[in-house]
Amino acid sequence: MAALRTALPALLLALLSTTAALGQGIESTSNADLQAARAEALRRQMGHELHLRAYDLLDELVYGWTREAPFAVETPVIVGDVTVPLGFGSGLEALLENHLSGLVLKHPETRVRLSYCPGCAQLVVHSDKRGTVISRGVDQPGALAALGKEAGATHALFIDVEAEGSALVLRATITALDEHRSIVWARTLSSSTSSGALLRAGDKLVSAEQARTEYVDALQQRGPIVIPARLGLVQFSPPSADTGTGGIGMVPILWLQSGAELAINHARDWTGSVVVGGTFVPQLYNGLMLEARVNRLLTGAAASLTQPNLYVFLSGSLSTLNGPAALVLRDDVPNIADLLASATGAVVQTTTWPALGTGLDLRIGQRVGATLFMQSTPTLNGSPGVGRWLDYGVLQVHTIGGEVTLWF
User: Fold this and answer.
1) Is the dihedral of CA 299, 300, 303, 307 positive or negative?
2) Is the pTM of this model over 0.85?
3) Mind listing the domains of the chain with CATH numbers?
C-alpha cells in the first residue's frame, strides 16, 4: 500500500506530461496545416496573376507580328520550348502554348504557321560522329533540325517567361533549324506586376496603349450618375363582372419618364433612381407621376460591361390623372351625366393614387434595358373600375406593365 502511494504521484505526473506533449503535437500539426494552406492559397493566387500577365505579353507579341511580320512569306515554325518561372510546371506551359496557337490561327497576317513537334519535349536519342546523346529534342540542335524536317518546318520558336523583380519578362526567339540554330528574330517584352493585365480579345488585338484607352473610356462612361429615358406602359386589371361597370376598365397609360440614377458603388450591384413622367392622350387623359426605385443586381457581384445584367427592384410612386379616363378610377360607378360633363369639359375629373411595385430590369451594357413590373394601389381598392391581377388578401396586384429604357 505504501508502494502504491509512492508510485501514484509519479504516475499522475507522467500522465500530465504525456497529455501536454500530445496537445503541443496537435497544436504544432494544426499550425503546420494552416501554414501549408496559406502557402497553397498564395501560390494559387500568384499562379492566376502570372497566368493573366503572361497571356497579356503573348497578346503583345502576336500584335507586334501583325504590325511587322517576322517573315516575308508564310513560314512553318515549330514551338521549340516554352519555359515559365520555377514551381508553375508544365500545366502553365501548355496553357501559354495553346493561347499562342489560338492567337496565331486567328491572325494569318503574322505569316507564322505553327507546326506540331511531338518530339521536342520528349526524350530522344540522337547519334552523330561526336557520339550519342539522350535528352529532350529541344536541347539537341542536330535532333531538333531532324524533327523540324519531319514536321515540315524550317524554324523554331522559343519562349521564356521569367519574373524579374517587379516585372514579368517574356523573351521570344526564332531560330533557323540548322546545326548552329542561328537566331533570325528576337524580342523582349516586359510587364510590371504592379499593373493589371489588359486581357485583350484574341480575335481583335490592339496595342497596349489603345487597350488602356478603351478601358479608361469604359470606366469614365460608368460614372456614378446616369440619365435614364424611359417609355412605360401600365395596364390596370379589368373589373370583375359583378361591379356594375359593364366590364369597362381603365385604358392603358403610356408614361414618358426621365430623371437620374445613382450607383451606390462602382460595382453597381446597388443603384437608386428618381424619375418624373408625363402622359397625354387628346380627349382622354393627361397626367404626371413621380417614382423612386432601389435596384439590386442578381447576375453576379458586379455589373458587366459586356454581358446582360439583371436587376430586381422595389419602387414607390405617386401618380395623378386628369380627364374622362380618370372617371374609371373613382370610388363609384360614373353615370351618364358624369360622362357628358367630363366629355364637354364642364367638369375635369382628377384622380391621384400612390403605388408600390416590384419587378425585373434587364440591361445590356448600361445603355438599353427592358423592364417588367407589377404594382399595388391600396387607395384604389374601393374603385369598381379596377380589378385584381393577383389577390392574396394583403398582397394585391392592380397593375402590370413594361418599360424600355435608354441611359445617357
Assistant:
1) negative
2) no
3) 42-195 (3.40.50.10610), 222-407 (2.40.160.20)
